[in-house]
Design goal:
The chain is of the alpha/beta class and about 675 residues long. It has a seven-stranded mixed sheet with strand order 4-3-15-14-13-5-6, with helices on both faces.
Length: about 675
C-alpha cells in the first residue's frame, strides 16, 4: 500500500541481503483484487531512497553513527529538558505513513504524556479542509460513499484532482465505469491533466476560483428548478440561508473564468446519479473548507447523497484516514471531540492519566506549531523541510530546535537533526492501515529488519515509557495487536466505531470497513440508515448547507509578479519523493505553456529559466505543455525546491496551507537569488 486507495500487496523477502525482492497485487484482497500501480510495486521492491540503517546523533556539528542506547538516551534527555519547562514547547509531527497502531501510540505519547497542544500530522497539509467540511456538513469525518458506488454512478465529476496520476488503480475503476453507455467523466481543473485527457469533458476555471464556479452551478440548478426539494426538506437544514447568499449564475461564472455552457454541463451532470470527487486542488486553498462545503452542497441540493452518488474526497497518503480516526491529532480516537469534557474524561480514564493533562483543543496545526518556534521537535515518517510551505524558514526553525527525526530514509529533515532514529517501513512492520473509503486492512512484515532499525511502534513506546512510566505499562516493544485492541475499545459507541474489528477477523476476511460496532457488521454508505431514512450525527440530525462566497486569492498576480505558480503531484512521485528520487533530487522541471515560454524567450538559457516568488527562487528545466494555461507555472510538489516558493497562508477553519496559487515571475537563470526569509 503506497496511497490511500488501499490496494493489497504481496511481498516476498529477498533471498540474500535485505529488503523486498518481489511485490505484486494480492488477488485475495477485497479492495483491489490483485490490481496494483507501478509506484506501489517499485517503491516496495526497488526504492531509490537512501536507507537509514544506524542511529545517529549530532556531535561537533556532524551527524555520527552511534548505538540505539546512546541515541534514545539523547532523544529522551533533550525532549524531557524542554518538556519540564513548558509542555507546549515540544512539537510532535506524525504522518499518514504510519500504521494505525504507531499513529495511535504517538498520539497517546503526545497528548497523554507530553500533554502538548503542538501535535499534528502531515496529513493536515492535504486533508484538513475536507475533514472540516465533512464535520460541518454531516457531524462526522470521512466520505459517506464507498468504492462500490463507482460502478453505480452515471456521472463522475472529478474536481481539483488528478486520480489518473495520484490514484491510478481507483481511476481505472472510474474509467471502466465510464465505458458503459451514457456514463461520463467531467473534469474540473485549470490544467488539462492526465485525468482530463482520459475524460469526456474538461472545464477549466481560473486558478483558485473553484468556489465561484461551484456557486455558479448551484445557482443555475436553482434557476432551472432542478433542486431535489423532497430530499432537502427531509434531510437538510440551512437551504434558505444558502439561497439568500447565492450569486447570479452568470456573474459567478464570469468570476470563475468559465462560459455558461460549462456551468450547464456541470448542472446537467448533477441531474444524474453523480459522484463528486475532489482533491488537493480544492483542499490546499485559503478557502478550502468553504469550497469543499460548496461541493457537498451540490450533492445535497440535487439529492445526490445516496448510493451511486455523493461527495468523495480523495485522500492522499496510505494511512491518512488512520491518523484521522486514531491518532488524537484533530479529534480523540473514534472522532471524540476535543472540546467535549466528557470525551476528554473517557480518554484520560482509558489512558490512566490526569484529565487536566489532556489539551482541550487540537492545537494550531503543523504550520502554526512550527511558526510558534518550538524548542524541541520530534518528527515521525515525515519531511517538513521539503514538505511545508515556505520550507526554507521551516528549515531554520528546525535547525534552531532540538530535533529528533524518526524515519526510514534519508531526507532533507535528517540533515538538520540532532538525533536520527532509523525506522522500519512497509513490508517490515506489523499492524493495520485504513484507506480512503474507511476500510481497515492488516499489514504484515515480509522480512526482518537489520539490527540498526526498529519498528515505529517500538521507538514510540520506548521514548514514551522512559519519559512517562506506565503509559505503555513500561513495555518498550508492545504487541501491535494489543495496541489495536486498545484503540478499538476507545472507539466503542462512537460514530467511528471500530470495536467489532479484530486481528482474527482481518486474518479471515483481509479487510473491514468501519463503522463496525460488532464482529458481524461492516460499514456501508453512511447516514443512510435503512435505505430509506437519513440521520446525521449533528445537533439536529440533519445535514447542513453552507453560505461561503468566493474571496480574493491570498497573493494575486500583479505587474511585478504577473504569473501564477501552482503545484501538483506527478506520476510515480509521492509525499516529498524520497523513495522515488533517491539521494539526489535531480532537476526541477516546470510545465509551462509554449506561449508563456515564448513571452520569456530572451531569458531562456540552455532550456532553463528561474521561477521567482517573494519567498525565493529555483532554476527549472522547461517542459513546454499546452495543457497548462498561459500565465501559469506548474511545479511538482514532491521536489524539495518547490515548497520554499509557496505560501504559508492558511484556511482559517482547517489550518490547511494554500499550496496551489501564488504570484511568480520568470527571470534569467543567472539571476537566481538565494531563498529569501519569509515576510
Amino acid at each position: 500500500m503506497r496511497c490511500a486507495v488501499g490496494c493489497g500487496h504481496m511481498h516476498r523477502a529477498a533471498d540474500v541481503g535485505y529488503g523486498i525482492d518481489t511485490a505484486r497485487g494480492d488477488a485475495a484482497h477485497p479492495v483491489s483484487q490483485g490490481l496494483a500501480c507501478s509506484r506501489g510495486i517499485s517503491e516496495s521492491q526497488d526504492p531509490d531512497g537512501e536507507w537509514l540503517s544506524r542511529p545517529m546523533v549530532r556531535s561537533d556539528g556532524e551527524l555520527r553513527q552511534t548505538t540505539w542506547d546512546v541515541a534514545l538516551a539523547r532523544a529522551v534527555e533533550g525532549l524531557q529538558a524542554v518538556h519540564s519547562r513548558d509542555p507546549d514547547s515540544v512539537a510532535i509531527l506524525g504522518s499518514g505513513q504510519q500504521t494505525n497502531e504507531a499513529a495511535y501510540a504517538l498520539g497517546k505519547v503526545a497528548r497523554g504524556g507530553f500533554g502538548t497542544r503542538n501535535y499534528d500530522a502531515n496529513t493536515t497539509l492535504c486533508m484538513a479542509s475536507a475533514v472540516t467540511a465533512y464535520y460541518q456538513a454531516f457531524g462526522s469525518d470521512a466520505p459517506p460513499c464507498t468504492y462500490a458506488d463507482i460502478g453505480e454512478a452515471d456521472r463522475h465529476v472529478v474536481w481539483g484532482a488528478n486520480p489518473a496520476v495520484a490514484h491510478p488503480v481507483m481511476f481505472r475503476w472510474i474509467r471502466q465505469a465510464a465505458d458503459e453507455d451514457d456514463v461520463e467523466i467531467v473534469v474540473v481543473d485549470p490544467v488539462r491533466s492526465e485525468t482530463a485527457e482520459n475524460s469526456e469533458h474538461h472545464v477549466a476555471p481560473d486558478p483558485g476560483k473553484d468556489l465561484a464556479l461551484a456557486r455558479a452551478v448551484l445557482a443555475r440548478i436553482v434557476e432551472t428548478e432542478r433542486v431535489d426539494r423532497e430530499f432537502v426538506a427531509e434531510a437538510t437544514e440551512g437551504f434558505e440561508d444558502l439561497l439568500a447568499s447565492l450569486p447570479d449564475a452568470a456573474v459567478a461564472a464570469d468570476e470563475a473564468g468559465v462560459e455558461m455552457a460549462d456551468v450547464d454541463l456541470l448542472a446537467e451532470a448533477l441531474d444524474q446519479r453523480a459522484l463528486v470527487y475532489w482533491g488537493m486542488g480544492i483542499n490546499q486553498h485559503v478557502q478550502g473548507t468553504e469550497t469543499a462545503r460548496a461541493l457537498i452542497d451540490l450533492t445535497l441540493a440535487t439529492g445526490n447523497l445516496r448510493p451511486g452518488g455523493g461527495p468523495f474526497s480523495l485522500t492522499g497518503q496510505a494511512n491518512s484516514m488512520g491518523t484521522r480516526i486514531c491518532s488524537s491529532k484533530g479529534s480523540w480516537p473514534g472522532q471524540r471531540a476535543f472540546e467535549d469534557p466528557d470525551h476528554r474524561r473517557v480518554v484520560a480514564d482509558h489512558w490512566d492519566v490526569p484529565v487536566d493533562r489532556l489539551p482541550d483543543d487540537s492545537g494550531p496545526g503543523p504550520v502554526g506549531m512550527l511558526e510558534d518556534g518550538p524548542e524541541a521537535v520530534w518528527t515521525v515518517a515525515t519531511n517538513p523541510v521539503a514538505g511545508m510551505p515556505e520550507a526554507e524558514s521551516v528549515r531554520e526553525t528546525l535547525d534552531d530546535a532540538f530535533l529528533v527525526v524518526q524515519d526510514a530514509f534519508h531526507t532533507e529533515t535528517v540533515e538538520v537533526a540532532d538525533v536520527v532514529l532509523p525506522a522500519a517501513t512497509w513490508g517490515e512492520s506489523e499492524g493495520t492501515t485504513t484507506n480512503m473509503e474507511r476500510t481497515i486492512s492488516r499489514v504484515r512484515a515480509a522480512t526482518d529488519v537489520p539490527s540498526g532499525v526498529k519498528p515505529d511502534l517500538d521507538i514510540i513506546a520506548t521514548i514514551g515509557s522512559r519519559l512517562f512510566p506506565g503509559l505503555f505499562h513500561d513495555d518498550t516493544s508492545p504487541d501491535p495487536e494489543a495496541i489495536f485492541d486498545e484503540f478499538t475499545a476507545l472507539t466503542e459507541g462512537t460514530v467511528a466505531d471500530c470495536s467489532g474489528i479484530t486481528y482474527d477477523r482481518l486474518d479471515d476476511v483481509h479487510a473491514v470497513r468501519w463503522p463496525a460496532p460488532d464482529e458481524d457488521s461492516v460499514g456501508g454508505y453512511r447516514y443512510y440508515d435503512d435505505g430509506e431514512t437519513w440521520s446525521f450525527p449533528t445537533g439536529t440530525g440533519r445535514a447542513k448547507f453552507s453560505t461561503g462566497r468566493q474571496g480574493a486569492l491570498p497573493e494575486p498576480t500583479d505587474e511585478e509578479y504577473p504569473l501564477t505558480l501552482t503545484t501538483a503531484r506527478e506520476a510515480d512521485g509521492y509525499n516529498t519523493g524520497v523513495r522515488s528520487r533517491g539521494g539526489e533530487a535531480g532537476p526541477l522541471v516546470a510545465r509551462i505553456n509554449p506561449e508563456t515560454v515564448e513571452d520569456h524567450s530572451g531569458l531562456v538559457t540552455d532550456g532553463t529559466l528561474t521561477v521567482e516568488t517573494r519567498r525565493g527562487s529555483a532554476t527549472v528545466a522547461i517542459d513546454r505543455d499546452e495543457g497548462v494555461p498561459r500565465g501559469m507555472v506548474w511545479l511538482p510538489i514532491h521536489h524539495p525546491a518547490t515548497n520554499r516558493l509557496t505560501l504559508s497562508d492558511r484556511d482559517p477553519q482547517s489550518d490547511e496551507p494554500n499550496f496551489k496559487q501564488c504570484a511568480a515571475r520568470l527571470v534569467a537563470p543567472e539571476a537566481e537569488l538565494p531563498p529569501a526569509a519569509a515576510d
